[in-house]
Prior knowledge:
- The complex is a heterodimer of chains A (367) and B (223).
- Chain A is built from 13 helices and 12 strands.
- In chain A, β7 (150-153) and β8 form a beta hairpin.
- Chain A is elongated, with a radius of gyration of 29 Å.
- By secondary structure, chain A is an alpha+beta fold.
- With 223 residues, chain B is α/β, with parallel strands linked by helices.
- Helices cover 33% and strands 29% of the residues of chain B.
- Chain B is built from 7 helices and 10 strands.
- In chain B, the strands form 2 sheets. Chain B has a 6-stranded mixed sheet.
- In chain B, α4 runs antiparallel to α5.
- At the A-B interface, α1, α10 and α13 of A face α2 and α3 of B.
Amino acid sequence: MINKLVIENLKHRWVRTLLAALVVGVQVMSILTLIGLSRGLLEESAQRARGSGADIFLKPSTQGSFSFSSGQLNEAFVPFIQKQPHVKEAVGVLSTPVELVTTLNGVDFPAFEKLSGGFHFVAGGPPSGPDDLIVDSAYARQNKLHVGQTVKLLNHNWRLSGVVEGGVLGRLIVPLTTLQRLTGNASPPRISEILVKLDNPALTDQEVAYFNKLLQGNLQAISVADFVAQFSVNNVPALRAFIGVITVIAVVVGFLVVFLSMYTAVVERTREIGILKALGAKPLTILDILVREAVLLAVLGCLLGIAFSFAVRGLVTQFMPASLAVVNTPDWWPIAAAIALGGALLGAAYPGLKAARQDAIEALAYE
Amino acid sequence: MSDSIIITRGLTKTFHVGEVDVHALRGVNLEVRRGEFLSVIGPSGSGKSTLFHILGGLAPPTSGEAIIDGVNIRALTENQRTELRQRKIGFVFQKYNLLPTLTAGDNIALAQALAHVNSRPADFDQILELLGVKRRLHHKPSALSGGEQQRVAIARALVNQPAILLADEPTGNLDTQNSNAVLDILRDLNKRTGQTILMITHNPEAAAFADRTVTMRDGVIID
């Protein structure tokens, strides 16, 4: 019967209930989307790293795995690496950010094709001139691009020569020399990293150790497998901190919304609380009723939030497949639910105690 | 079992309003027999409602004794007074005080749930018939007339078989026809089931439905 009273109370003020649940839902959605977005982008980056075909990455010693800094490495290292034992191909890549987290990647196209095994073209073909650009299909779809079209990036007009399947190196690929010139990395020619393919991938760990000894102080070698393994939310301190901030905001918002909703409910229902007390409801029973209402609001909010997170993922996939990548994060549903529930319980605490302490006679006289 | 179900001796209640003490009850001595229908009449400010609240266990007395069905209210904690309300008291208020979100039937069921009572009196169906609300139990209070709401409130007050039915101006919000109907029902219930009823009213015509009437003035019973 108490549960029925709780449900009927929420149904009676359905607009307020819906609004409170919606706000809790948005809070849950924010958490799930943030986690989904972080994972999606990291997974996509990992996929592109794997898709490059390299066994080892060589980066400047000072550069972290997730740095977008470009042109820190002299291109003269590439022929030096190429001469090392067991190196089948060594290709320099210059990456520079252009939109959100999308980078423009410059490579020597024939050398990269030899290393990666080549692109799979959906339309058009490889670059034939210095201003040619190839993009992946997600970027082409999002920006409605067609082969032969001019695309302006870095304040430069590129001719779209081909559209490739995604998952190899990056979304936007241009000739290395042009990108070096446009980004001030032409003299001396500089690159961001070197991709290395070995004649025997089984020797990767041994070669990583070899390069790290050989290039100590200049370059840092990391196997692609280790590099990809670093692509988790926990390995990005800034992202972890950001998720922490969003979680705290979510708890505060949940607390405020449920507090406001429950507080107005308690004031509005003062007389009803008096009736319940006259009928023999103990303070704990009154608190129990309000806590159940808050929990129900949080549960409704969680369900809405999970539904919203699917909707956001659908919208991103539909309209921004190249800029953002969101994955579903069912393992975070209980965490987001616990955060929403925590906020709701905190929000219900004061109004609940106020109601529980309400004097029955004063409450019955309330107009 | 004592023949008197309500006994008060030298009952006082003083409210502290700011720095002023308001003596609402100044030594009430009252005895109500089991099965009696008593009305308490008096003008506003005479202390009727305060007496109602103390006998109902809603407020503790300041001094004196108030014994309800053998239990001295003055010795009870707030929790124990709550339990007394669950087991021994049925309330009927002037403003009906039904929960608006629940149907009439659920209002009655809630009173049982709060008192942790699972079974209803054997003759409860007959009581519902007598009250004329049996076919209105699925309606919410907003769909019921004032008279119907008050009759549902009476059913709610009786469902846990209380020792005493306390009614505070039960006809105060009703027209004459509905008032008479409700008072007839209270008298009928008293006669049929032996239910002890204590009714607070300022209306002498309503008071006349009771077996006995006492009059209060300035916090004491004068007659």
